[in-house]
Write a structure and sequence with these properties.
Layout: E1 9-16, E2 19-26, E3 31-39, H1 46-56, E4 66-71, E5 76-80, H2 89-94, E6 103-110, E7 113-120, H3 121-130, E8 134-138, H4 139-146, E9 153-160, E10 163-170, E11 173-181, H5 185-198, E12 206-212, H6 217-224, E13 231-233
Length: about 250
């Protein structure tokens, strides 16, 4: 496998506190040609470890037209873009979450909304130094971009490990954007049904689209068919996947 043609390959990286993972996506073949996970050994400071590991990975030193940093923020908020002022991002974000001194705010505009999320400054700047063309994406933003909104009610669900991310859109307006930590399948089902009940989501004129960990999706679909009609497991190449153990997200059409 060669990756010298930067118009053919895109690189996706996920950074986490227990290491990082990356995958190489062949646009022409619509396939993943390389995926790798690098675990943090805790024998040195994470920042120093990350700096060395990024430099050692030969694939990462090549040039690509498209490079995505994909991460799942612990703190995020969705704001109508009409309220966004660049100089007041911290003020807006602080209405929902406190911002630590070690964190910076990343903003992503999707349609009429802007996603504000917190990311650790040192780690982001280090990765940005290696990849100047880096494009940051978060789980909620990807879901907003990939969601089919052809019906009145559209529910997008991403499952990455023990965390569920859900976005509910009615008539092109976001009704809910949230995440939930779960331990069992019953926890997962309860949270989703609780959400449907509180938002009065009808059985008809609603679409539930499932992305992410495919170990959970068939089970979840089977349970949800008792309550809803239109439930779809979305193909990884069309949206969100978790092929790499750390839950890397692939943005195939970036």
């Amino acid at each position: 496998m060669t990756a010298n043609n930067n118009t053919t390959y895109s690189l996706s990286i996920q950074l986490a506190l227990d290491g990082f993972s990356f995958l190489l996506y062949n646009r022409n073949k619509n396939s993943i040609e390389l995926e790798k996970e690098v675990r943090y050994t805790e024998q040195e400071k994470f920042y120093d470890w990350l700096k060395v590991k990024l430099a050692k990975e030969e694939i990462l030193r090549r040039k690509y037209e498209s490079i995505n940093l994909l991460y799942t923020p612990e703190k995020f908020t969705l704001v109508p873009t009409v309220f966004i002022e660049e100089k007041k991002l911290k003020e807006l974000f602080s209405l929902t979450f406190p911002l630590e001194e070690t964190e910076m705010i990343e903003s992503e505009m999707v349609g009429n909304y802007t996603m504000l999320s917190a990311i650790t400054s040192d780690y982001y700047n280090l990765v940005k130094d290696y990849f100047p063309k880096l494009k940051v994406k978060t789980t909620p933003t990807l879901l907003l971009e990939m969601l089919d909104t052809s019906t009145i009610w559209n529910i997008g669900v991403v499952i990455l490990y023990q965390k569920l991310h859900i976005i509910v859109i009615k008539d092109d307006k976001v009704q809910l954007c949230n995440s939930f930590q779960f331990l069992t399948k019953d926890d997962l089902l309860f949270y989703m049904l609780y959400t449907f009940d509180n938002l009065d989501i009808p059985v008809t004129n609603s679409s539930i689209q499932l992305f992410g960990n495919r170990d959970y999706l068939p089970l979840l679909k089977n349970e949800l068919t008792r309550y809803h009609n239109d439930i779809r497991i979305m193909e990884p190449a069309c949206g969100l996947t978790s092929k790499i153990p750390m839950g890397n997200l692939l943005l195939s059409n970036s």
